[in-house]
UniProtKB/TrEMBL annotation:
Superkingdom assignment: Eukaryota
Organism annotation: Erpornis zantholeuca
GO cellular component, one term: mitochondrion
Protein's UniProt name: DLP1 synthase
Entries under Gene3D superfamilies matching the protein: Farnesyl Diphosphate Synthase (1.10.600.10)
GO terms of molecular function: prenyltransferase activity
One GO process term, biological-process aspect: ubiquinone biosynthetic process
Amino acid sequence: QVVELISSAIGDLVQGIYYENSKSSEENCLTDDIGMSRWKEQVFLSHSALLAKSCQAAMELAKHSAEIQDMAFQYGKHMSMSHKLHSDLQPFVKESSTDTMAFSLNSAPAILHQEFLGREAWLEQIREPPHRCACVFQQLREAIKAGKGVTSAIDLCRCHGNRALAALERFPPSEARDALANIVYAVTRFP
């Protein structure tokens, strides 16, 4: 059972990374309409499956019930989703004088911004002059920050964090459970 879980997690990871790499090499990847449901699917494959299935496998090795294994899976899945959202949000929430942090147009805040803005308005916003210019990139980043995408991504990050914490509640109180909860708190806290 453990070998099957880890094998399928590695398979998911390879599939997710292959998809990400093949999409980023395509010419029109900047204008893909991936949407949040596709984003979640992609993040599960390339980030969450390995942690979720590893947590489940650990409970299998410890001879816990299927219910406890599922709670461990849920913790790993939602913890990883929170972590990815936290990572995607950094270019939009970090404040510093030299804030030129790059971001992906396929990050959660950008996708949520696109969904709120509408497809046509989004395409107008990302069209650039023939030469790439940092000021256009900065303007796009500011437009995304000013829209609802960032606050919605923060809310989604906290939602996944709360689901991870709810899964932890099924485990008896311990230092290990507190440490796992602290990881969730760290990735759901924003300035």
